[in-house]
Amino acid sequence: MTELSPYQRDLRDRLSSVPVLPAPAPWRPVFASCAAVGGLLGIGFATHPDSGDDMVMVVSHDGHGLFDAVTGEKIARDRDPDPESSTPDAAADLTCPGLGPVAGRRVHIAGLYGGGLHTTAAGGWHVEVVAPAWPNERVLLSHGSGMPYRNPHGERWWHIFDSRYSELRAVGFSPSGRTLAVATSSDVTLWTRPPGA
Predict the structure, then answer these.
(1) What is the DSSP string of 126-160?
(2) 3 state SS of 10
(3) Which value, to the nearest 10 degrees, does the dihedral of the CA atoms of residues 137, 22, 58, 165 take?
(4) Which of 102, 112, 149, 152 has the smallest CB count inside 10 Å?
(5) CA–CA distance, 130 with 160 (Å, rounded to integer)
(6) What's the pLDDT tens digit per position in 82-141?
(7) CA dist 39 to 17, 46, 53, 82, 162, Å?
């Protein structure tokens, strides 16, 4: 087993010791806390064809759901999707059929079966997952370039989510960069920011 360097030990200790903080402005939470989704397998992003707003598609053992990523409203629900396409592993590109306003389109899903979401967004935003106290994972949001963790916590980096109670499935930004999502095996947490912010 390789021993950690003093720098690595210091970074691990620092990342382990900071509390969860709210995401900074211009980000705001979409839900009061989260949207419960038991048996969540993965999530993906779609764009509303009329408004251009982000939507989040959720794939779980109980079917598919589509949320408005600005208001949190559940737009569509399919409790009994076609078994041959109900999970993303049924398609080589990890997609599932869309529903509601994006019916007829395929939505890329990141989560239990693989895939990924954007880890950067316009304006210098970055998100990453760290596990200084593995297996508990933490989601860190940072802003700017360079080494944000050299700055005080809450200045250029924020510990915004701790996955102590459920297994992390997917973390990342929408392609537009206006939505940040954290999906676990039991829920989805979303943050949004206005266009151009």
Answers:
(1) EEEEEEEETTEEEEEEEESSS-GGGSPTTTSEEEE
(2) helix
(3) 40
(4) 152
(5) 12
(6) 999 999 999 999 999 999 999 999 999 999 999 999 999 999 999 999 999 888 999 999
(7) 30, 21, 26, 17, 19
